[in-house]
Design goal:
Chain A is mainly α and 443 residues long. Chain A has 25 helices and no strands. Among the domains of chain A are: 109 residues, no CATH class; 30 residues, no CATH class; 126 residues, Butyryl-CoA Dehydrogenase, subunit A, domain 3, CATH 1.20.140. In chain A, 63% of the residues lie in helices and 0% in strands. In chain B, helix 4 packs across helix 12, helix 7 packs antiparallel against helix 10 and helix 13 crosses helix 14. In chain B, 68% of the residues lie in helices and 3% in strands.
């Protein structure tokens, strides 16, 4: 026979039921003992502000620096906190066992960044136009391949170009990937002989680029549309363009030259000879402004590799230079005559304006050099010769008109002087007659 | 007659020529008589014959008014020729002047004479004004002659201001923007005046067309009216003799206006023509660059020389004078000076029988020195200061 305690009685719970309740209470108390300290800890450190306030006070710069710079980081500015990356899936718990992530290992960085940046749905909420294939591209780069296949953690990963905790938008002039800062960012590794030791690649690319036509345009003139390292090498998928791809890389901007080069038939011939397309004549990192003089020097150095000295095909460049020199000389002569006429006060602004068209012809002719055909260059130069001829005629006409005006002025002045002399003589005669009349009347 | 002529041998040619001359003269005389019967211009003959010009040591200044008149007529003639090619629109004005200067036969000469002639005309108008002031030629009964003359000077200045914009080049565009901004500082009516001048909030094609209308129709009509009254009054009252000559008993002698004085005038006019032709040949009127309303204003915008003294004054004034905007004080002062200039004959009235005072002579010299110094200063000062 079972007995009931008053309490149990009162509650209507049997003794066996009371044991179950007791067991439940014990288990609950045990659970509380285990969980409460953890819960208290989680409540103490749930938000980024708390990370920053503590980390700023830490004496180790490695730990305090992220807290100092993170407020300027683009992620901070869109509301993402420390735990967005370090909390592994948004957990607020600092315990690694609970998913907290300390400074990630270099080999894991692409995957860490890719958690968000490869997630189209996630990225869309911040900027629908952002690409989400950076990590995929990275694995195709030289950096990514070395990291993955050779576990080479000294290669660049995301944070080497986008410094962790201080990442800025590429359009921000203080960003490490703002066009003007890209050479410096790449050069941090690629210009460092120690880092590049054993890799078999030079370390003078940035120095060469800085002195190149593109480098000067970007770094001295501030033209951020000028090509920089990643324009030719790709950014996340950074790799040297293959020999056969050089024409495509340069042709992205220099479209007309690339098309002319294709027409010349030399693209295939260069590829067969393992010659790097455009770079064969123009070099790569230290590309200098092209000049007509290159036609002579390249004839001597590059063309002779295949063409004999007496080979008419090889001599095309010299013939082309002759055409270009003639056009330049004709334009200079016409401009000189027009400037002279303008300095004399003649109205030749229309002729000077029209002469500007010769620049188009010069540009088109120089583009046509890439056909390697003197006939093609001559065809493009023809409108320029017509323009210079017309301008010269107008300049000569203006000078002739100037002389005509001087002569006309001399004749007119002579005519006026004659008239004035006649009038003065007439006035004098009248005065004399008047004086005689007065004398006559007084006498 | 015929037989007689035939028998006259060698004398036939001369006799024939005389007959022809007589015949031509006769035709001309007949035409004049025919016209006179209908128009009655022979009534002017006594007036022309009667007009005499006193000769004394200041007579030279009498030629200046005629010179200004000649230059005005030259402006009208060259202006009409320019109208043949000029297109009054923001799209076509510059190009039409450019075409005129480079492709039209003697277009450069006509425009250059018009441009230089305008400057010379305004210079002569100023010289005429000051010579008349110093000779006190505005005294009774010539008050209206003076007032129409001042009106003509203002008309000439406004003609210069409106004509300056017409080539629609950069300098003219921005100078007009500055020039039309100045009346805008006047309280209450300023913005209204500015909008009337500009035909909108800013200088635009609308400004060009109304400046053109002012320049070729309204102002010339006003000028012709004033010149008509001015010349008529000069004819009615004759040339004024300065008080210093009057004090010595007046001019000792005089010459007929026609033909003696007119022939002397002609010598001056021919000299002016030759000078303008030379200046036009050596320094053809500048065209500059087409106005671009969206471009930044070029450094050192300056008005024409005849506005420089006012422009420089406004530049030198402090931002605030006695709590009033400095520019407003300057514009007010020039406005009052203009009214005073207009009323000089009524302000300079010595008591009957008293000698003319020197106050207005000193004021005239003061004004001349002020204009010359401020104009020089305006050109000498840094254009960006």
């Amino acid at each position: 026979m079972s007995t009931r305690s008053p309490a149990a009685h009162a509650s209507g719970v049997s003794v066996s039921g009371g044991a179950a309740v007791l067991l439940a209470l014990v288990l609950t108390a045990l659970a509380w003992c285990l969980l409460v300290p953890g819960l208290l800890r989680a409540q103490a450190l749930p938000v980024s502000e708390d990370c920053v306030s503590c980390h700023l006070k830490l004496p180790d710069a490695r730990l305090s620096q992220p807290a100092e710079s993170y407020p300027n980081d683009i992620h901070s500015q869109i509301g993402l906190g420390c735990l967005s990356c370090h909390g592994s899936g948004g957990s607020d718990v600092l315990d690694p066992a609970m998913g907290f992530l300390h400074a990630p290992e270099r080999k894991n960085i692409p995957a860490l960044c890719g958690r968000c940046h490869s997630d189209g749905a996630f990225m869309r909420q911040f900027d629908p136009s952002l690409r989400t294939d950076q990590v995929a591209e990275y694995w195709t780069s030289v950096h990514g391949k070395l990291l993955r296949s050779e576990n080479d953690t000294s290669v660049a990963t995301c944070v080497d170009c986008h410094p962790a905790h201080d990442i800025r938008a590429p359009s921000d002039p203080t960003s490490s990937v703002y066009p003007k800062n890209v050479p410096q960012t790449c050069g941090r590794c690629h210009s460092d002989p120690k880092r590049m030791a054993g890799r078999g690649i030079p370390t003078d690319q940035v120095a060469k680029y800085t002195s190149s036509v593109h480098g000067k345009l970007l770094l001295e003139k501030g033209d951020v549309s000028a090509p920089v390292c990643n324009t030719c090498h790709g950014n996340h998928g950074a790799a040297p363009p293959g020999l056969s791809s050089v024409r495509n890389v340069c042709g992205n901007c220099h479209t007309v030259m690339a098309e002319n080069f294709d027409q010349s038939g030399h693209e295939r011939l260069f590829a067969d000879q393992d010659l790097p397309g455009c770079a064969t004549c123009h070099n790569h990192h230290d590309i200098q402004p092209a000049s007509d003089e290159m036609l002579v020097s390249r004839t001597e150095t590059v063309c002779r590799k295949c063409h004999e000295e007496a080979d008419t095909a090889g001599m095309q460049f010299l013939e082309i230079k002759g055409v270009l020199d003639s056009l330049t000389h004709a334009a200079d002569s016409a401009r000189e005559v027009l400037d002279h006429a303008e300095n004399l006060g003649m109205e030749v602004s229309t002729a000077l304006f029209e002469l500007q068209d010769v620049t188009n012809a010069e540009t088109r002719s120089r583009n046509a050099i890439h056909t390697f055909s003197a006939a093609a260059v001559r065809k493009e130069a023809a409108p320029g010769f017509e323009v210079t001829s017309n301008a010269l005629t107008r300049g000569d006409d203006a000078l002739a008109e100037h002389t005509y005006r001087r002569e006309g002025l001399a004749v007119f002045t002579l005519f006026v002087l004659l008239l004035m002399t006649g009038l003065i003589l007439k006035i004098r005669a009248g005065e004399s007659e008047e004086a005689r009349d007065e004398q006559h009347s007084s006498s | 007659m015929a037989a007689n002529g035939e028998g006259n041998g060698g004398g036939r040619g001369a006799a024939g020529g005389t007959t022809e001359a007589r015949g031509l003269r006769g035709v001309v005389a007949n035409v004049i008589a025919w016209l006179d019967d209908r128009v009655g211009f022979s009534a002017l003959k006594p007036l022309i014959k009667k007009k005499e010009v006193p000769i004394h040591k200041h007579s030279f200044w009498y030629y200046i008014g005629g010179m200004a008149l000649f230059l005005f007529l030259l402006q009208v003639a060259t202006g009409i020729m320019l109208l043949i090619y000029y297109r009054p629109s923001a799209e076509g004005a510059f190009e039409s002047v450019q075409f005129l200067m480079s492709d039209v036969r003697f277009g450069w000469l006509i425009r250059s004479i018009h441009s230089w002639g305008a400057n010379l005309m305004i210079f002569m108008a100023f010289v005429h004004l000051f010579s008349v002031m110093l000779m006190k030629a505005y005294r009774k009964p010539r008050e209206l002659t003076w007032m129409t003359g001042v009106g003509l000077l203002f008309a000439a200045l406004f003609l210069g201001f409106t004509g300056y914009l017409l080539p629609w080049n950069t300098l003219a565009f921005f100078a007009t923007r500055v020039g039309t901004e100045i009346p805008g500082v006047l309280p209450v009516v300023g913005p209204f005046f500015r909008e009337i001048l500009r035909g909108g909030d800013d200088v635009s094609g609308a400004t060009l067309t109304r400046f053109f209308a002012f320049h070729v129709s309204f102002l010339p009509a006003v000028a012709f009216g004033l010149i008509g009254i001015h010349v008529l009054l000069v004819q009615k009252h004759g040339m004024s003799v300065p008080p210093s000559v009057e004090a010595q008993g007046g001019a000792k002698r005089s010459i007929k206006f026609f033909p003696q004085f007119l022939m002397r005038d002609l010598v001056g006019w021919l000299a002016a023509m030759a000078m303008l032709a030379a200046v036009a040949a050596f320094w053809p009127a500048h065209l500059g660059v087409k106005a671009d309303p969206f471009a930044a204003a070029p450094a050192g915008i300056r008005p024409e020389w005849y506005f420089m003294f006012m422009f420089q004054t406004l530049k030198l004034l402090p931002a605030e004078i006695l709590g009033i905007e400095g520019e407003l004080v300057g514009i007010g002062a020039f406005g009052i000076a203009g009214v005073i200039l207009f009323l000089v004959p009524f302000l300079d009235r010595p008591k009957p029988g008293a000698k003319p005072g020197k106050l207005w002579t000193y004021l005239t010299y003061g004004a001349m020195v002020y204009i010359i110094v401020l104009t020089w200063w305006g050109y000498a000062a840094s254009p960006t200061n």
